[in-house]
Amino acid sequence: MTEETNGLRRPPLSSSAEPTPAEYTGKRGPPFLEFIAIMMWLGTLHFLAFLVVASFVLLPLSNFLMVIAMLLVLTFIPINDNCKWGLALARFIFKHVGGYFPATIYVEDIKAFDPDRAYVFGFEPHSVWPMGAGILANLTSFMPIKKVKILASSAVFRTPLIRHLWTWLKVSSVTKKNFISLLKNGCSCIVIPGGVQETFFMKHDYEVAFLKTRKGFIRLAMENDAPVVPVFAFGQSYVYKWAKPQGKFFLKLSRAIKFTPMIFWGAFWSFVPFRRPMLMVIGKPIHFKKNTTPSMEEVSVVHGQFLEALQSLFDRHKERAGYPNLELQII
Question: Could you give one GO CC term from the UniProt record (predicted)?
Answer without folding.
Answer: endoplasmic reticulum membrane
